[in-house]
Design a protein that fits this description.
Length: 255
């Protein structure tokens, strides 16, 4: 990190504890203004429109920006979020989880980064360079700049709060213990095996089987929180609820 911050946009480093504080602050504000959130799913649409008062539009990102892989955009001065039509859950119900996470990702940019955007300090000027109505920021698939990773962390913590995830996990699994790859393989039902095989058709690389197993196991939780199985898989791994190998304890093997 340099004196100007991290990545090409110069964002400041944020610890997980600081990010959790930012998320909890938003949850508290929404609870005081609207209603307390005590059960999943997190009402991200209401957070955006009822509390943050941001305009929201489904957009044709490829037609607007002439590039592939744009799923979200933020107009700071207009206080507007755009989500690409490919994620519209009304037209594509199977994209509901991805839509929710992308919307929460844009909220992360709004809460964490909008002051950088207000004077267009941060913007992809190569896209629509002469258009005064261009968005301040465009989120493109595969961008791993720290500004995107921070928005992803914010979205994960917002849509899948740790305490809520652990409470639901405990209600859905035996004793609430972590689940290992071997346990998923050994205890998989025909439906789970079918889900694993389905997911393997879309995955490649050394972690393909592992991620397919974890995502199939995470799907019931993903359905409850209305996020995608990959997002829930990553969150459960982060919380050490999905693990490659379960550590043995002093009580293992005792009757």
């Amino acid at each position: 990190m340099t004196r100007r911050g991290m990545g090409k946009y110069g964002v400041d480093f944020i610890t997980p504890q600081q990010m959790d504080f930012e998320v909890q602050q938003l949850m508290t504000e929404f609870g005081n203004a609207q209603r307390q959130i005590i059960e999943p799913p997190i009402p991200i649409d209401d957070i955006v429109e009822l509390y943050l008062k941001l305009d929201f539009e489904i957009i044709d990102a490829k037609a607007l920006f002439k590039v592939d892989g744009v799923f979200g955009a933020l107009w700071v001065e207009d206080q507007k979020i755009g989500i690409d039509q490919s994620l519209d859950p009304h037209e594509h119900p199977q994209m509901l989880g991805r839509y929710h996470f992308t919307l929460a990702h844009e909220v992360g940019h709004w809460r964490l980064h909008r002051r950088k955007f207000q004077k267009r300090v941060v913007t992809q000027t190569s896209l629509l360079p002469e258009d005064p109505n261009r968005p301040n920021y465009i989120c493109r698939d595969g961008d791993d700049d720290p500004i995107e990773l921070q928005a992803d962390m914010f979205a994960a913590m917002l849509m899948m709060p740790e305490a809520m995830v652990r409470r639901v996990w405990h209600s859905q699994t035996e004793h609430g213990d972590p689940m290992s790859l071997d346990e998923i393989r050994a205890n998989s039902s025909p439906d789970l095996r079918a889900e694993i095989e389905r997911r393997l058709r879309f995955k490649t690389g050394p972690l393909a089987e592992e991620n397919a197993l974890f995502e199939a196991a995470a799907k019931p939780m993903a359905d409850i929180f209305e996020v995608s199985p990959p997002a829930m898989r990553r969150r459960l791994q982060k919380l050490n609820l999905l693990v490659k190998i379960k550590e043995k304890t002093l009580f293992d093997g005792l009757e």
